[in-house]
Design goal:
Chain lengths: 113, 111
């Protein structure tokens, strides 16, 4: 079965650079969520989108922005990167038709040097 | 996560049962989840339970929910070495299905 696809899987950037992460949800899933998991930490909710509109916002820094496109894929844009942004970034997707099922991708590991 | 608490470590012998416990605070949570994370890997959805249920069984996994005490547990029967991983419980809160995770329990299965 198709899963949530994230790219790139690994990304190395320097301080003050920008990075873009992409997420392709499971087919027919219309909601995507972004989470950030720092080293040894639990995942923290950043932001979510439903039908291309932002539906909820968590602890996302102002330097980050995200959007969901007409094909339901989502991109997380991170600017002025800081060392503390080094983390595993997860995307998850769900559908109202499959209540209770919230599937995560394998994550994108961002390292800021 | 400060609203969802788990013990950090659990060690069991291969073939024994494992029980991982979790307490949560949001009484309005609709769903509660268990995810498994192996080193360097993503979050694998193991199972979830709707808040009006008190038990759910899925092969080797049994989830018990005590809504009065806001206590959730995951029992893994016949634990195998491949079950070694970090197990996160998570509660769903808010209208946008935002998950709040516990800090994770590192399960180590000894031969």
């Amino acid at each position: 079965a198709a899963g949530v696809i994230q790219s790139p899987r690994h990304l190395i950037k320097e301080k003050r650079e920008t990075a873009t992460l992409k997420c392709y949800p499971i087919p027919r899933h219309d909601t995507v969520y972004w989470y950030q998991q720092g080293p040894g930490q639990d995942p923290q909710f950043l932001i979510s989108f439903y039908e291309k509109m932002q539906s909820d916002k968590g602890s996302i820094p102002d330097r980050f922005s995200a959007q969901q496109f007409s094909d339901y894929h989502s991109e997380l844009n991170m600017s002025s990167l800081e060392l503390g942004d080094s983390a595993l970034y997860f995307c998850a997707s769900s559908s109202p038709a499959t209540t209770g099922e919230l599937f995560f991708g394998e994550g994108s590991r961002l390292t800021v040097l | 996560g400060e609203d969802v608490e788990q013990s950090l470590f659990l060690s069991v012998r291969e073939g024994d049962s494992s029980v991982i416990n979790c307490t949560y605070t949001d009484s309005s949570s609709t769903y509660l989840y268990w995810y498994k994370q192996e080193p360097g890997a993503g979050l694998q959805l193991l199972t979830y339970i709707f808040s009006n249920m008190d038990m759910k069984q899925d092969q080797r996994l049994t989830v018990l929910l005590n809504k009065k005490d806001k206590h959730l547990s995951l029992r893994i029967a016949d634990t195998q070495t491949g079950d070694s991983a970090i197990y996160f419980c998570a509660e769903e809160s808010g209208s946008a299905r935002q998950l709040t995770f516990g800090s994770g329990t590192q399960l180590t299965v000894l031969p």
